[in-house]
């Protein structure tokens, strides 16, 4: 007992110290970010954007999609200007690569503190630029970003430290490890649907892993992206990071193409068509590519579910972020036994949903970010109606105002749908709920896999093992069991898809390490006492018994049984002994002569 008592005291003291460190928060400075121009809400003129390629000039024009009020413009950068931004970032990265994890964690804490203290500002900016409601902005922008920051604070360093691996049988005298080094400049081309999170997501992984980041924001969310950049700049400055470590660039396709040609890795969030062009351009410099493209996620509801709860989740999944659903559910498969009840309850909720300018009243849904998109959504609905579908219900419009053009689209429930309809095959990216029947688990799996996309899925059943079994047979990169999109709130998990949904992963361990040069390292375990030496039979000039030696060595290391390996070992030692004694005998004979 006398021996254990001091150890128990030390363990208790250590636990107490850890508890005190947990209870006492670290000192985190506040940062000042100028938001005066963003908060100014004086009346501005109504802006009607030009459509198609004609809109791509030397300026990116910005406006509120919910009110069409003009917000300003930003330059569309030329290829030479993009290259200059990347060159500045590359210079700063060489300094930042030597930074400590302590400094990088402080950067994250400063960001987290600012986000927590300015949630309303961040959400309002997102709402004004993309048309989403404040609640949707909080769910999709604030919570996901805070979760990523806290995961990096808790585990980021752990997953970037050298990772030791087994050496195998032939290298027992060695030590094997994987080391992770910054790639250099990480480029990202991000979409408009979550302007805050889509900027912070690649930036956080890149900067924490020692890289620089150059991010091209969408031309449909440039105003907000450029404001969020001020937050990043202020936080980097507060920790003494080099200037120009992170850049936000603005423009159209030409700007994005120049970025791909200049960086050390590219992350793209967007459509499959543009993703293919990104790959083609990246092939010229052979840089790694991560593509997070479209989705047509399936939402499967078995007959044994708690229906009222699942219905609420289903509507939220379909209308995620004011119809601007990132990883949102787009195809609903409901068991025939509960189909009518499911449709009835969904219709009741959707009928109560009111659509309107999100900051001018208590609306459930806001505007569509891109003006032409509502026309596309209506065409998908019309195609379904022409092929036999029916509209079960549509939501209502609030007071849109006289300046409303076509930037609003009511949530729409379609029944009697099938896979001949475009709404069940093409990505809608809008508040449409097409609901289809199924009669067996096998049929549901077949229907869900009948898609060119493979991003995510959600499966609901009162029998969790049944839901897991169904989800395991769906060809997609993300699955939620009795929930929707929950995997994205687990930032330790990778995010990405297959097929036309892209490849590669961001988020999680895989996404963090994807920002790194992964280097395999082998070193001597017992240096300098045991060193690598070439066995005599295979030294140059190779002995006539060289191949026989190799055969015995292979059998010694990889023989089927321990007895086979021991037998080969004995013969191997015998051969080496004979080889070593032969030169000695030859030398003795020469001396006698």
From TrEMBL:
<dbReference type="InterPro" id="IPR016162">
    <property type="entry name" value="Ald_DH_N"/>
</dbReference>
<protein>
    <recommendedName>
        <fullName>Aldehyde dehydrogenase domain-containing protein</fullName>
    </recommendedName>
</protein>
<comment type="similarity">
    <text>Belongs to the aldehyde dehydrogenase family.</text>
</comment>
<keyword id="KW-0560">Oxidoreductase</keyword>
<keyword id="KW-0732">Signal</keyword>
<dbReference type="InterPro" id="IPR016160">
    <property type="entry name" value="Ald_DH_CS_CYS"/>
</dbReference>
<dbReference type="GO" id="GO:0016620">
    <property type="term" value="F:oxidoreductase activity, acting on the aldehyde or oxo group of donors, NAD or NADP as acceptor"/>
</dbReference>
<dbReference type="Pfam" id="PF00171">
    <property type="entry name" value="Aldedh"/>
</dbReference>
<dbReference type="InterPro" id="IPR016163">
    <property type="entry name" value="Ald_DH_C"/>
</dbReference>
<feature type="domain" description="Aldehyde dehydrogenase">
    <location>
        <begin position="56"/>
        <end position="521"/>
    </location>
</feature>
<dbReference type="InterPro" id="IPR015590">
    <property type="entry name" value="Aldehyde_DH_dom"/>
</dbReference>
<dbReference type="InterPro" id="IPR016161">
    <property type="entry name" value="Ald_DH/histidinol_DH"/>
</dbReference>
<feature type="signal peptide">
    <location>
        <begin position="1"/>
        <end position="17"/>
    </location>
</feature>
């Amino acid at each position: 007992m006398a021996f254990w008592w001091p150890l128990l005291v030390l363990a208790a003291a250590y636990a107490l110290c850890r508890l005190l460190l947990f209870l006492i928060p670290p000192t985190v400075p506040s940062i000042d970010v100028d938001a005066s121009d963003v908060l100014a809400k004086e009346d501005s003129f109504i802006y009607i954007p030009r459509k198609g390629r004609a809109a791509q000039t030397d300026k990116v024009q910005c406006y509120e999609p919910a009110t069409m009020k003009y917000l300003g413009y930003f330059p569309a950068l030329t290829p030479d200007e993009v290259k200059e931004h990347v060159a500045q970032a590359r210079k700063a990265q060489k300094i930042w690569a030597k930074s400590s994890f302590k400094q990088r964690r402080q950067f994250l804490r400063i960001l987290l503190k600012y986000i927590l203290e300015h949630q309303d500002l961040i959400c309002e900016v997102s709402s004004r630029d993309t048309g989403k409601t404040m609640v949707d902005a909080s769910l999709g922008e604030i919570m996901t970003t805070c979760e990523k920051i806290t995961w990096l604070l808790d585990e980021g360093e752990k997953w970037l430290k050298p990772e030791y691996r087994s050496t195998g049988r032939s290298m027992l005298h060695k030590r094997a490890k994987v080391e992770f080094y910054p790639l250099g400049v990480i480029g990202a081309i991000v979409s408009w649907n979550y302007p805050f999170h889509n900027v912070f997501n690649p930036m956080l992984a890149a900067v924490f892993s020692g890289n620089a980041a150059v991010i091209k924001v969408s031309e449909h969310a440039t105003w907000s992206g450029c404001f969020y950049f001020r937050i990043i700049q202020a936080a980097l400055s507060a920790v003494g990071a080099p200037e120009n470590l992170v850049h936000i660039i603005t423009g159209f396709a030409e700007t994005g193409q120049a970025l791909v040609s200049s960086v050390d890795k590219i992350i793209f969030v967007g459509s499959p068509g543009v993703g293919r062009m990104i790959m083609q351009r990246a092939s010229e410099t052979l840089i790694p590519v991560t593509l997070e493209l479209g989705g047509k996620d399936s939402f499967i509801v078995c007959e044994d579910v708690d229906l009222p709860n699942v219905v609420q989740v289903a509507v939220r999944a379909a209308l995620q972020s004011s119809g601007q659903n990132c990883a949102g559910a787009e195809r609903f498969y409901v068991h025939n036994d509960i189909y009518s009840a499911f449709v009835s309850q969904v219709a009741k909720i959707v009928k109560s949903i009111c659509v309107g300018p999100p900051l001018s009243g208590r609306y459930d849904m806001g505007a569509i970010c891109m003006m032409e998109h509502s026309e596309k959504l209506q065409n998908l609905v019309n195609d379904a109606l022409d092929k036999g579908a029916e509209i079960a219900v549509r939501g209502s419009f609030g007071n849109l105002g006289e300046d409303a053009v076509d930037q609003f689209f009511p949530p729409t429930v379609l029944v009697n749908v099938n896979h001949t309809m475009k709404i069940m095959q093409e990505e809608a990216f809008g508040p449409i709920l097409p609901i289809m029947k199924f009669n067996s688990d096998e049929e549901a799996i077949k229907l869900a896999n009948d898609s060119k996309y493979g991003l995510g899925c959600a499966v609901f059943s009162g029998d969790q093992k049944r839901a897991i079994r169904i989800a395991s047979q769906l060809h997609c990169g993300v699955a939620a069991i009795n929930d929707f999109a929950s995997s994205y709130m687990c930032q330790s998990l990778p995010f990405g898809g297959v097929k036309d949904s892209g490849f590669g992963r961001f988020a999680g361990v895989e996404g963090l390490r994807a920002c790194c040069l992964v280097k395999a390292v082998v070193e001597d375990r017992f240096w300098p006492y045991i060193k690598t030496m070439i066995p005599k039979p295979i030294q140059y000039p190779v002995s006539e018994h060289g191949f026989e030696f190799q055969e015995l060595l292979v059998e010694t290391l990889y023989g089927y049984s321990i007895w086979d390996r021991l037998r080969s070992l004995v013969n191997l030692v015998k051969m080496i002994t004979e080889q070593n004694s032969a030169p000695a005998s030859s030398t003795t004979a020469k001396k006698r002569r």
